[in-house]
Each structure stands twice: as structure tokens, then as C-alpha cells.
Amino acid sequence: MRRFAGRRDGEGGPMTTQNGGHGTRPRWRAVPGVRALASYRREWLVKDLVAGVVLTTLLVPQGMAYAELAGLPAITGLYTTILCLLGYAVCGPSRILVLGPDSSLGPMIAATVLPLVAADGDPDRAVALASMLAIMVAGIMILASVARLGFIADLISKPTMIGYMNGLALTILIGQLPKLLGFKVDADSLIEECVGVVEKIADGAVEPAAALVGCGGIVVILGLQRLLPKVPAVLVMVILAIAVAAAFDLGEHGVSLVGELPEGFPPFTLPDVRLADVAPLLGGALGIALVSLADTISNASAFGARTGQEVRGNQEMAGVGAANLAAGLFQGFPVSASGSRTAVAERTGAKSQLTGVVGAALIVLMLLLAPGLFRNLPQPALAAVVITASLSLADIPGSLRLWRQRRTEFLLSVAAFAGVALLGVLEGIAIAVALSVLNVFRRTWWPYNTVLGRVRGLEGYHDTRSYPRAERLPGLVLHRWDAPLIFANARTFRDEILRLARTEPRPSWIVIAAEPMTDVDTTAADVLEELDEALNAEHVHLVFAELKDPVRSKIERYGLTGTIDPRHFFPTVEAAVTAFRLRTGARWQPEEPADGDGDGDGDARRPAE
């Protein structure tokens, strides 16, 4: 009789089996939210409820501020926050990751949507475009998840991401200054905006009350974050700003206020956009999806390491896709993971995505029962929220570290920064990706390669650049090539080997220490064949040592062993050296004395810095 292994799925649930056929586990058990609910512990409930209440105090002002950063009505930030939290709670794999409107995405959304909005700045059309943008981001994320393309988050290297974020921080800072100071600037680029801000300040356009509220808000947030990090600084500032606005009637003194928010839950809405808008929206969606994915994977990895939870990149993409889809269908805009909000949730004891669900429910209650709660919130206060968030995006210490550690990567960072600052945020992300890819290509095109020698007191063979007095065998050159041999670098390899073949004294063997050579493509195979024939004409033999078996198989498949003597393939460098010495009787040339006394005391020393 066949036996089935069964178990009870959740308290009081039906018995299911883990084998095939009719005994398979129900498909709904594969949904992360369902799995989390089935394994939920009662002792987590109070902690999740408390964390949800505390988190809401951050979600509301940031959601409104980041909506306006994206060029959208403040209420859309709350709609977006509600739906993305619910969407990720159902489909997201992380227990405590918090998604929502993000300061890094706001300028990208604005750069995509605002050029498509009519000249009169119709807010309904802007909302529809932003919602379609979120749906496109969702589609990209879900398709990438199905195709298991989580690795695309690595398309942006850390140096270029630092430069991109620094440029983004400056763009946000300059863009929010007019709102902070109570005036408007009409500009199409960062430079024009800088000029416009300076001109407005010089012309006396600053509204004193607005500037006082905005600058005071920045001081309050940064001061509390530094002196009392456990206090919700943004909430405290927002409450103070509302109190000051009501007490001094700032709305009558030239300070723009948020005003009454629409009452109730957002309706299900399919965005109505023109066919001509699809192409530019798709371009923006690709950039937003890439940044959102990179943010989400990095945050999930950081917080997963603390909680011992494994990060599943493809599931994270599906979760972020579901969050964006939910937001896009209810008048929201694209979202990403938030490190600051996740940190707040973690510090306040969050144990599961119920924390986000509680936050979403509280925002819904606020919209139903108290939509006028933030009507006296000054717009300069929201600008203060955005500006303090932009400061956290910048990584000046990281830039200085790149300058000290590796100048080429510092220059990559500067180039990415310049791309954002001079060309725009969407162009900047394209430049950041292109620079990262080109940097990888550059390292493959011109890989590190060197001549090896024997060093007394050290096993093996070592870089003669680090050990200039390393011994060498007359007639033998040991050369290491630290990269796969492919079409991009095959001619560079050929030129280097030919150069070595013509050095004095002329070698008869050039041994390639090929352990780092992970591949040889067909273009490189053709170049190797031509190279071996040219070397043979000069009575020089090309020899390979430590070639990996898969690479050796490719060389045989390419027919190269018909040109390169099969006896010139050795399992180790030592075996190749021994064969050469047996054939020629060559002896190692003595090293030059390191300290002038001929005893060789200084021969084996550290590689040069």
C-alpha cells in the first residue's frame, strides 16, 4: 500500500499532502502572505500593532511630501502608501521590509510624467500618467521575476550608484528650495533652476514666513535625529508646523498650505493615457524599475542579514511588482523599498508584514474620519521633509573613500553625478548603467597581466612587478593573463605575447599561466592560431599551464591542437618549468642582492603597494 505524508496546514485547516497527484499542497500556499499568515505567532501581535502605529506617523507626511516631489497631488502619496503596503504584504517575501513612495524615485517620476502633461498642468492627467507608469513598472518587475533576472540589480556598480545618488540629492535639494522659501521657479534643468533660485533670492522674492517654517523644519528634523534618534522627528516637526500655521494664520501671510484632503478610499481606476505616451512612459519605467530593484535588494539583504532571513531576489521582484500594480490601479505611482521606514519598523519591534497592514488601515481611517487633519500643514514643511531625505541620499564620505582608494572609480562616480546634474535624472540612470557596464568591459579589454618569476623563500611563482628581483630561467617567460580570452581582448593578448617574444634574451618558450583564463571564444581561438604560427616562425613555442578542463575542451573543439603542440599543455606551471629545464638544462639566474651584501636577505618581501 502506498503511504502519503500529510500535515495540517494551519490551525484547524484541512489535511494536505506533500506528494504529487491529488495530494499536492494547494497553490495558494505558495503566496508569501498566506505562508506568513499560516506561521504567524500570537506573541507577535502586540509588537506588530505598536510598530504599525509608530510607522504611520512617518508614512503620512513622507507619502504626501514624496507625491509633491513627483509633481503630483499630496493625496496620491497616501493612496500609494495604502495600496503598496497591502500589495507587498500579500506577495512580498520579506517579513519587515516596508515599501512606499521614495525620494529617489520622485524626481524620476516627475521627469517622466511632467513633460507629457498638458501646458495647463492638468493634475488628473498627471495622476493617470503616473498610475500607468506604476503599472508598467509592475509589469517589468513581474516579467523579470518570471525570467529570474534578479541579477540585473547588479548593473549599477557601487561607485556609479554613489555618484548617481549624490547628483539626485543635489537635484532634489535645489528643486525644493523654491517651495521652502515661498516662491516659484520655471526651469528645465538643474543649472537653470540654480540660476533662477539665486535670481529670486536677489530680487527679494523670499516669503519670510515660509522660509522660517521651512528652515525651522529642517533644523527640528536634523536636530532630533541627531540628539534624540528614537523620537519620530518628522512627526514632531509636522505637528509643530501645523500648530504654528494655525496659531499665526500663516495661510493669510503668503504661506501655501496643503488644504483639505479628499475624503474616503481611492476608487479602482484604469489609467486613461494616449498611445503616444506609451513609449516615453516605458523608458521611464525601465529606469525606475532598475533603481527600485536595486534599492529593494540592498535593503532586503541588509535587514535580512539582521533577522536571519534569506533574501530571494526573484520573489522580491514579484513582491515589488505586486505593490506597484496595486498602487497603479488605485491612482498611485511607482514605489520602492524604504530603508528609513524599514528601520523604524524594525526598531519598534515589527515581526511581520502585519505592521504595514496596520499602517495602511490607519491611513484609510484617517481619510474616512479626519480628512482635514493636515489642512493647515504648510507646504514649506513638506519641502523640509524632502530636503532632509535628500541629504540621506548623498554619500560624501563614500566619494572621499573612492578618491583615496581608487581614482578610476572615483572618476566613474563623478561622471554619474555629472550625468544627473547636467542631463537629468533619467539620463543620469542611463549613464550610470552604461558606465558600470563599460567599466566591466574596460577591465576585460585591458586586464591585468604580468611576468612571473621564482622568489627565494616563497612557494610558487610570483609577480615580477611586486618582486623585481625574482629569478627567471633563460629562454623561458612565465606570463599570467588575468581574464577570459575573448574577442574584446584577444588582440591585446596577441600584442603582449609578441612583445615578450622579442625581448632580449630571446625566449624559446612562453608559458601562459592560464588558471585565471576562464574562457576562450572563437575569435580568440583564431587569434591564438595566428599567434602560434607567428611564434613558430621565430622558433618560439606557446605553452599553456593550469588551463581549466572546460577551456581545454573548447580549444580541442576549435581544432587548435592541430596548431599548438598537444605536448605543450601542462597541468601545472611547475610541470611546464620542469619540462623546460629537462629539455634545455637551463638554471635559475641568481637574484640580485637586495641589500648589497650578496646574502639575499631582502629578496622575499611584500608586494609593492
Automatic annotation (TrEMBL):
Q: Name one Pfam family in it.
A: Sulfate_transp
The membrane-spanning stretches of this chain are: 44-64, 70-89, 96-117, 129-151, 163-181, 201-224, 231-248, 278-297, 354-374, 380-398, 410-435
Instruction: Tell me the ranges covered by the STAS domain, including all copies.
Output: 466-580
GO BP annotations, alphabetical order: transmembrane transport
**What spans are recorded as compositionally biased (Acidic residues)?**
592-601
Provide this UniProt record's keywords sorted from A to Z. Membrane, Transmembrane, Transmembrane helix
Q: Which InterPro entries does the UniProt entry name for this protein?
A: SLC26A/SulP_dom, SLC26A/SulP_fam, STAS_dom, STAS_dom_sf
Which topology term describes how it sits in the membrane? Answer: Multi-pass membrane protein
Q: What is its main location?
A: membrane
Q: Which PROSITE patterns match?
A: STAS (PS50801)
Annotated Gene Ontology cellular component terms: membrane
Record field: compositional bias (Basic and acidic residues): 1-11
**PANTHER family recorded for this chain?**
SULFATE TRANSPORTER
Q: Write down what this protein is called.
A: Transporter
**Taxonomic source organism:** Streptomyces phaeofaciens
